[in-house]
């Protein structure tokens, strides 16, 4: 295998000049650059990534810490982060934190101990004070308001929920339940609940509190249980907004099992656009954030943090979204 010294000898230049060309430094003359590039091609020289990282004191590995990798959204996020990192020659380690403060802090500490270059953290348990005490490259994903202390990439929670519920209203629903949306946590649930309420306000309606039912961990089983509780309460409803697609999958199962027709008797919409939503029967209409945008932006921001850049405020970037209208809603 050719070395940088072999390239230098073939091009009639120093090894430092070859390094300058490889790193695209501007002060190399055009004819010299051409000679070096020709020698690289002729010798099929390839950069040794491990050696480059050793010289830069970096490992080429970043971390991703999420609450629950079994939840469909976090599986989708992890897949896109791995792809975005791979395009930059980076590898990814994944940690599960269960949304607990001590485990989120441990994920940061472990990343540092393992000499991982930086961490993308779905922060739910940590506080602003916790973050201020961390001297380590971090980028946040998620919705918890952490006062712009760190760069953050989040979902279009309020606007996405507002658009989803507005579609239910536009297609005839008037009594719309919300499953998983009664916890005022300052994060995802609060923002999606605000969008649910705003859509009602836009239509001159006030949602019935009896139609708001919590869902355990925003998962499939929690969605089925929440839908069963909604049915048990006996309050009439003709639409359901679910906080996540996992909740929607469970709710759909329970509603159909109770003999309701979807969307003829009751419309249903989720949030996240995970792959399973497309293959439900009927396929679930959902708020579709740009997952690739979220992952790509988080990885790019983390690279900049690792390089020591101070990113300007405001540091929160919100993903674009669309509505993926499928079989659980009617057409306008």
TrEMBL record:
UniProt keyword terms in alphabetical order: DNA-binding, Transcription, Transcription regulation
One Pfam family cited in the UniProt record for this chain: LacI
GO MF term (any one): DNA binding
Domain HTH lacI-type residues, every copy: 2-56
InterPro entries: HTH_LacI, LacI/GalR-like_sensor, Lambda_DNA-bd_dom_sf, Peripla_BP_I
Protein name: LacI family DNA-binding transcriptional regulator
Species per Swiss-Prot/TrEMBL record: Microbacterium gilvum
């Amino acid at each position: 295998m050719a070395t940088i010294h072999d390239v230098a000898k073939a091009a009639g230049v120093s090894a430092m000049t070859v390094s300058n060309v490889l790193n695209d430094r501007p002060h190399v003359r055009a004819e010299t650059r051409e000679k070096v590039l020709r020698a690289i091609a002729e010798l099929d020289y390839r950069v040794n990534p491990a050696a480059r990282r050793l010289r830069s004191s970096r490992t080429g590995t970043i971390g991703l810490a999420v609450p629950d990798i079994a939840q469909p959204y976090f599986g989708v996020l992890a897949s896109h982060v791995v792809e975005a990192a791979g395009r930059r020659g980076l590898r990814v380690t994944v940690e599960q934190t269960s949304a607990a403060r001590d485990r989120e802090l441990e994920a940061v500490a472990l990343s540092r101990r393992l000499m991982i270059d930086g961490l993308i953290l779905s922060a739910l348990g940590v506080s602003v004070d916790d973050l201020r005490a961390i001297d380590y490259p971090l980028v946040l994903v998620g919705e918890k308001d952490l006062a712009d202390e760190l760069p953050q990439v989040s979902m279009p929670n309020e606007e996405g929920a507002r658009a989803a519920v507005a579609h239910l209203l536009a297609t005839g629903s008037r009594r719309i339940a919300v499953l998983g949306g009664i916890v005022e946590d300052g994060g995802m649930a609060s923002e999606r609940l605000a969008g649910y309420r705003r859509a009602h306000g836009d239509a001159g309606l006030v949602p019935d509190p009896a139609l708001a039912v919590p869902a355990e961990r925003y998962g499939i089983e929690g969605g089925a249980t929440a839908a069963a509780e909604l049915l048990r309460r006996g309050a009439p409803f003709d639409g359901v907004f679910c906080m996540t697609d996992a909740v929607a999958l469970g709710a759909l199962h329970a509603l159909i099992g109770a003999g309701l027709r979807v969307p003829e008797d009751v419309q249903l919409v989720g949030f996240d656009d995970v792959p399973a939503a497309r293959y439900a029967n009927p396929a679930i209409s959902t708020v579709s954030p740009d997952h690739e945008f979220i992952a790509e932006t988080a990885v790019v921001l983390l690279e900049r943090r690792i390089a020591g850049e101070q990113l300007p405020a405001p540091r929160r970037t919100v993903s674009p979204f669309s509505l993926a209208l499928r079989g659980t809603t009617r057409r306008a």
